[in-house]
Design brief:
two-stranded antiparallel ribbon, 16 helices
């Protein structure tokens, strides 16, 4: 009788525990699904407060409640925060800059460490299963938005969009198409690596959907991402002597490029061919000229910049007037020291992740290497865009940091003779 009661108690305990984990998974999935919902916000004291922030905060509280929210000793990250704060103190508008300090703290503790903690707690397999679901949903929504606007002329409420030469430029809930394409570049090269190099057949759908979604987003950075991903796979295939894969890629790429120029000539001529335009500055909306201006602002304020979020105040222009390059944005607004620390922090994450990947095999190692490649491509594309406080950037960095610790934990447990299942 006592054994029966004990068995029922343990069964109920397991059910309750599973329900709690399911709640956590639901909010984690929702956090990733809405991580780019930059246009879904309410204004508080003149500043946008994104709805996704509420979901992320709840996810953080759930992890803390389960005692699995972790904050690691990231010396470079915390030093960056200190110098970022110094820049806010030296800002030409301290109020505006300290709002950004709060945004940074939220990005670190409610985004970076949330994803870091979840992966350590639940493992890579669980995380990427949820991530891929959110990316499937976003990709299909964007393609559906494109054709609904193109064929019916109907713009979906609460979705960001634009039209050029009769071609829709959908971005679902992202601020603009280039932001969507930059985020999806991570998934693009990750899926290419997992399917073509690691031969994980279930990533064929990922490779196809990410490519199609980026094509219909009609952003130049997206087409650059596809070119980089294709070139990377070709180089790896060449190095490994996989001539069949190279031939397949050449045929597929040629067919896709032909179809793209045939059915979307306006998009191809404007957003691809402008890269070869002699007047590239005009073709990119004056971004190159603006980059030189941002460099001059940095040279006048080299140590702490003009202050986070205060660039537009420096020129007394509209709030959306910002440098068009993440590095120049950091230099002009936070100065030399904060910029160097920011990139040192990212390089350190990449290096530690690469070392941790050597402790793994098979799919686990593939996830880490794919994430490294994804972040490298993501940060490369940000050199033609801006936004060092994008939530999905801090999400990706937190994912990589969590993968590093998770891989080390698995290795340590295996060497201690303990069986680990994730």
């Amino acid at each position: 009788m006592n054994c029966t009661v004990a068995m029922k108690y343990n069964m109920n305990l397991r059910i309750k525990t599973k329900r709690k984990v399911d709640i956590l998974n639901f909010f984690m999935l929702l956090s990733m699904l809405l991580i780019g919902s930059e246009i879904w916000s309410i204004e508080i004291a003149g500043f946008p407060f994104r709805i996704s922030f509420v979901v992320l905060a709840i996810t953080m509280l759930l992890l803390a409640y389960k005692k699995h929210y972790k904050v690691s000793k990231q010396l470079l990250l915390f030093t960056f925060i200190i110098f970022f704060t110094f820049s806010a103190i030296a800002s030409i508008d301290r109020f505006l800059s300290f709002v950004y300090v709060l945004y940074l703290l939220f990005s670190v503790f409610a985004v970076f460490y949330v994803f870091y903690s979840y992966i350590i707690f639940r493992g890579q397999k669980s995380f990427f299963k949820l991530l891929r679901k959110t990316l499937y949903i976003q990709a299909m929504l964007l393609v559906a938005q494109f054709f609904i606007e193109l064929l019916l002329g109907y713009q979906i409420p609460f979705f960001s969009t634009g039209t050029h030469l009769g071609i829709p430029r959908p971005a679902i809930w992202f601020y603009e198409t280039s932001f969507f394409a930059t985020y999806f570049s991570f998934w693009l090269i990750m899926s290419y690596y997992m399917y073509f190099i690691k031969k994980q057949k279930d990533f064929l759908l990922d490779a196809g959907l990410s490519t199609v979604a980026i094509i219909f987003a009609t952003a130049t950075v997206g087409y650059l991402a596809i070119a980089f991903a294709v070139a990377f796979v070709m180089l790896i295939a060449l190095k490994r002597g996989r001539l069949k894969l190279i031939l397949q890629f050449m045929i597929i790429s040629t067919i896709m490029a032909g179809l793209f120029f045939l059915f979307m000539p306006n998009v191809a001529n404007l957003f691809v061919m402008r890269l070869f335009d002699a007047n590239l500055n005009a073709a990119t909306g004056g971004r190159i000229a603006n980059n030189f201006i941002s460099w001059e602002v940095f040279l006048r304020n080299p140590f702490f910049g003009v202050g986070p979020n205060a660039y537009w105040r420096y020129f007394n222009t509209a709030r959306y007037h910002v440098p068009a390059n993440i590095t120049l944005e950091l230099l002009a607004t936070t100065g030399f020291f904060a910029t160097i620390l920011f990139y040192l922090f990212i390089f350190a994450l990449l290096w530690e992740a690469y070392k941790a990947s050597k402790l793994c095999r098979g799919r686990q190692r593939g996830y880490i290497i794919a994430s490294i490649l994804g972040i490298i491509l993501f940060m490369t594309l940000l050199q033609v865009n801006q936004g060092y406080l994008r939530p999905y950037m801090w999400m990706l960095l937190g994912v990589l940091a969590g993968q590093t610790v998770y891989a080390k934990n698995i290795y340590r447990q295996k060497n201690n003779g303990r069986r680990v299942v994730r």
